[in-house]
Amino acid sequence: MKYIRIWYRLALNSYGVQAASPLSSFGYLLGKLVRIAFFLIFLSAIFKHTSALAGYSLEEAALFFLTFNLVDILAQLFFRGIYGIRSMIREGDFDYFLIQPVNVLYRVSFNMVDFLDVVTVAPVLVITYYVLKHIPGGINAHRLILYLLLTLNGLIIAFAIHIIVASFAVLTQEMENTIWIYRDLMTLGRFPSDIYDAPMRGILTFIIPIAVMTSFPARAYLGKLGQGWIWHAFFVSIISIVLSLMFWKFATRRYTSVSS
Amino acid sequence: MRKYWFIFSIYWQEGLQQRSSFFVDRFRSFVVLISFYYLWTALLKGRSSFAGYDHSQMITYILGMSILRGLVFASRTYEIAGEINHGRLSGYLLKPINFFVYTFFRDLSEKSINLVSAIIEVIILSCLFHLDIRWPQNPATWGWFLLAITGATALYFLLSFMVGCWGFWTAESGGPRFLFELFLEFSAGAFFPLDVLPKGLQHALQMLPSPYLVFFPLHVFLEKLSPAQLVNGFAAQLFWLGALGAMTYWIWQKGVRFYGAEGS
């Protein structure tokens, strides 16, 4: 309950900051929506010239793109605070968080809640529902639960990656750009992982599990993900979250304060 | 003129000094290049052409798109709004330099670094995947292409300088600029060739200056234009250069008169 109250308070603060610059916030919001709209137009335009992309129909390819957006937007919505870890360390806020009676990782991760993403995720959810309805077989409760579980699983992997980035920042007081490398790599999940050749697909499944985060939920919904791969997805998220938490502990133990 | 080349040299050195930011920027472009390479390869699998592009034309478009993104869209004009908002513009206005030319040379250094890097990335990708590039058959095409990319670079500079001038009237130009850049990249054909889009949308986009930033120069390079289309394209580029040049000058004059040097 205490943590929910803290999140609510931090969210209100973030809202205050964004509401203080309405024109800028509106520009960013519209930009995010335009990006999604353009890619959807592009996808539908592609299907005017072909009937399939790597064996998927328009609705199926759109589901991959929307799942990528869901994981990406939700990760930004919830873990946005980690983007500012370097300045928190340099300006002494991190030292302040360490002495507060709250889990420091929680405090850092949720330090900022991007409300623009709350608005962005709404149309994505609506379009996803529309797309799911138009996929052969319509909305199926069993497959939908599996889809949601694997999307949540993707979000856990995203959180693990954010923790690793934050740990590097605590250790080195640098790595400001590392999170942007992750964001760029994430865009490889915009399209079904089947478009990549075997070595690239292997990298995206086993080394940097972008495909597990973005393609697996959609493939599971379409009934194109074997049982073994479903277990693989859950295994990857458990291993990555455990290892990232261990690394976070290791980094914070070695932190000797650089500011304040 | 020497002082502007000196500015070019200083920013070139600065650009190379901030290596991590530079590499992240280049990494971003490389990821876009890789993802679209795989997308189009998947779409062209088992067919000779897609939306009027054969395999080598599409590959050439993607590689050219990456190089032109490095050249045309690389810019530091986003700093203008901050310079205005924090009063740093006063320093430039007091110096014996023309701020417009100064920012152009600052941009030129950014563009040259990115261009060199983009060419290296394209060469690496071409070697790795043994890519079949469609080179122009007619030597004159190189001249036309050079002219088209010069026009595109000048056109983007005018547009982004004008957006930077919004800083005279608001301290919140970050969001609108983000929207402007996203819209421009998509409508310029910097992600995919615009003729993939439905005809109605293509015609609507042709009325904007953006297709002359990437799509038109690459069509010149691919020799996909008839002589009449080539003339029309250059005429449109020239028209936009004139119109945007006049508009930028007018906005700058208005802005400088409005400028209160707050924060300096």
What does this structure look like?
The complex is a heterodimer of chains A (about 260) and B (about 260). Chain A is built from 12 helices and no strands. Chain A is an all-alpha fold. The two termini of chain A are about 30 Å apart. The relative contact order of chain A is 0.14. The model of chain A has no long low-confidence stretch (mean pLDDT about 90). Helices cover about 75% and strands about 0% of the residues of chain B. Chain B is built from 11 helices and 2 strands, in the order ααββααααααααα. The interface between A and B is large, with 39 and 38 residues.
- Largest beta sheet of chain B, briefly? 2 strands, antiparallel
How many separate domains of chain A? 1
Helical/strand content category of chain B: mainly alpha
Compressed to H and E, one letter per element, the order of chain B equals: HHEEHHHHHHHHH
Oligomer: heterodimer
Measured as a percent range, the helix fraction of chain B is: over 70%
Radius of gyration of chain B: 19 Å
Largest sheet geometry of chain A: none
Separation, N- and C-terminal Cα atoms of chain A: 30 Å
Q: Beta-sheet strand percentage of chain B?
A: under 5%
The helix-and-strand class of chain A reads mainly alpha
Helix-strand topology string of chain A: HHHHHHHHHHHH
In a nutshell, what does this entry contain?
With 260 residues, chain A is mostly helical. Chain A has twelve helices and no strands. Chain B has helices at residues 2-17, 19-44, 55-72, 78-85, 89-94, 99-129, 140-164, 174-188, 199-206, 215-221, 227-258; strands spanning 49-50, 53-54.
